[in-house]
Amino acid sequence: MKGRMYNMRGGKKVSLLLCTYPSSLTRSVNHNSTFDSSESTRTLTSCMELHTHLIKFAFSRHPNLRKHLTTLYSSSRCFGHARNLLDKSTEPSTVVSWSALISRHVQNGFHKEALLAFNDMCTLGLKCNEFTFPSVLKACSIKKDLNMGKKVHAMTVVSGFESDAFVSNTLVVMYAKCGDFIDSKKLFGMILEPGVVSWNVMFSCHVQSDFLGEAVDLFKRMLESEVRPNEFSLSIILNACAGLRDGSLGRMVHGVLIKLGHGLDQFSTNALVDMYAKAGRIEDAVAIFREIIHPDTVSWNAVIAGCVLHDYNELALILLNEMKKSGTCCPNVFTLSSALKACAAMGFKDLGRQIHSCLVKIDTDSDLFVAVGLIDLYSKCEMMDDARRAYDLMPTKKDSISWNALISGYSQCGDDLQAVSLFFKMCHENIEFNQTTLSTVLKSVASLQAIKVCKQIHTISIKSGIYSDFYVINSLLDTYGKCSHIDEASKIFEERTWEDLVAYTSMVTAYSQYGDGEEALKLYLQMQVADIKPDPFVCSSLLNACANLSAYEQGKQLHVHAIKFGFMSDIFASNSLVNMYAKCGSIEDAGCAFSEIHQRGIVSWSAMIGGLAQHGHGKEALKLFNQMLEDCVSPNHITLVSVLCACNHAGLVNEGKQYFETMEEKFGIKPTQEHYACMIDLLGRSGKLNEAVELVKSIPFEADGSVWGALLGAARIHKNVELGKKAAEMLFALEPDKSGTHVLLANIYASAGMWENVASVRKVMKNSNVKKEPGMSWIEVKDKIHTFIVGDRNHSRSDEIYAKLDELNDLLSKAGYSPVTEIDIHNVNQSEKEKLLYHHSEKLAVAFGLIATPRGAPIRVKKNLRVCVDCHTFLKFVSKIVSRQIVVRDINRFHHFKDGTCSCGDYW
Hints:
- By secondary structure, the chain is mainly alpha-helical.
- The chain has a six-stranded mixed beta sheet with strand order 2-1-3-4-5-6, with helices on one face.
- It is elongated, with a radius of gyration of 42 Å.
């Protein structure tokens, strides 16, 4: 060995020495794979042994030997040794050694060191070659160092390597990854006949930067240029189609894949499964998946994740079970994370727990994605204690996604106070929140109707700079509306810089719930001008606005729009339609709308039963209730309130008692304040005052205003002064600012001729600054709402209205009508009382209806208070004299006056 080494000339046979060392050492010169720690240690030992031999035999300074030794040190990631050889060398270093050093730096992730080595190489005056430039440009790409990349580009131009295929492709990648797609495309365009590699480079860069549409356009250009794509080209474009959720385009690429003979390639097949799955074509994805003879973990994950993404959760769990039984692939963290989502969506808490156990076994404690999935699972299964434990077991540094998941969980489970509390804790710990956080917590604030908290979050959103976000503005708008702060909601609505359905829906709903139906309908007209199509939810809110206004004609127009836009299959819109017609006085139209609902839920039944009850069709309401029970629909507390109201309005005392006494036994519903109030009202109106008083005493909780109000109303009907006084005293304590109590008590005193007591009540009202709510009635004529108050002369047709009243008064007097003056609480003479009664708002509204609507058309009026005895009598006579149906909806019920009778049977 020694003799052979002394005979070497110029290192021409240096390979003889290298051959005596382990094969892994010599392979490492050109091998690009990374070493594990043990292999790296063995290679370093071999390198150092070789280095020692070279020094021992005085060949350590030989240029070729030093070059190989430098390359070997670089390959084994011993960059310090490699650099020492270059720095201590007395001979000029070669470009090969420096290139090897830079390349190995880049391959092992030391990009900054690679660029520093390149600078040193240039300082020594060494010229780069076609192998150096790609490595340096790759380092620039990863470091996103565009300035350095441009300098290297200039050097490639000067040195003449810009046209080299490998260098030009790397330049294209560098500019694209540094975000300069203009120059990247310009360089690509300079390649005279780009081959498939060049095209692939462009596809890959665009897809990685999420320019998916542009990648697809490039692919089409490639096909037009008659360059044959390879399996890598097609896989990249399939990924672009997956990102775009474009199944049609993906199918076209699939056709190209088969045509070119790449259909059986595992990589391409997995890309196909992923594309079809993400595009929502689950049947196609499963079909492709079934054709894979030996699906790997990627195949299983693609099809399972796609199923979960598009709510095929049951199929996802079936596939997971198949994967386990296959015995060839084990579920990994990605598989189980998808399964967690499926369990969360389906509420499978037991299976979710099993998957949680599997995740613990494969040690995913530090995986934030898995932790968030567990929080989501337990939250959706309403297991917030477990969700909180999953959150607490996360690594100490929790990101905003994990906070959002827990806040969202509490909000979804109705623990709004905890959700709001967590948000402020998040702020206190300086965790960065986003629009998702604010939107979620504002939902809880709306449920709590915590207006002060809403204003705080509004301020926080402005300070944090995310107030202008679409979701935040709409959430604030919705929250202010639900907190009945219409002015703030309206201000936000007017200040927004875009037109969208969500904002209009929130504002329409706010106006509707606040009782300002006219503004809600005006907004709908604005929506139409802005060409924003409604959805079933906004349609439902608008129908509710019409119901509150008793705007029958406008409600009918909305019905037409609902049919036009295909909303009649939506259960919310259908239920609102039933409610609208019922509250607008047309129980017949309500019945037709109800009959067209194919899948009636408890809301549908309750709306129709309540409508029949309000219109005085008590027996029909009870018949419908029994039909509901036959259809195996269980009632809720609202349904039973409607049932008791039906018994009340129809005077069905025994039936009412039976339903009230058996509701807990039969339906598992304990009577609430509303049920007691209905029953007390029923007993009181039927004259069973003692039973009503005993029922009040038996209430197992403190009675509220509705209960005592029912007793006061019964005392008024039967002129029981003592009972009325006692009920009024309780109401004064519970609702001191409510004027209705004072008015009813004064009516009781007035009907008994106790004028001193009436004056005393008036004095209390004045001293307590309690103002009587003025009687108000309104009527809809030609899509416009006309409002009247007592003695109103502000209407444009007042002269005609009062002339009509005079005409009616003469006709009614001849028919036998005389004013019921004993109900008036003013201590004045008979003629003055008659004059005051003569100008009641409902009489003005009906008179206007007679002169403003076609002969024979029904007149529909709404009143904010109960119809008085005199007006009730007056309207019965009018309906007979003019041969018109008059429908009056007061605060308590509907009155259908026809041919001199009322639907309530004078039982109101």
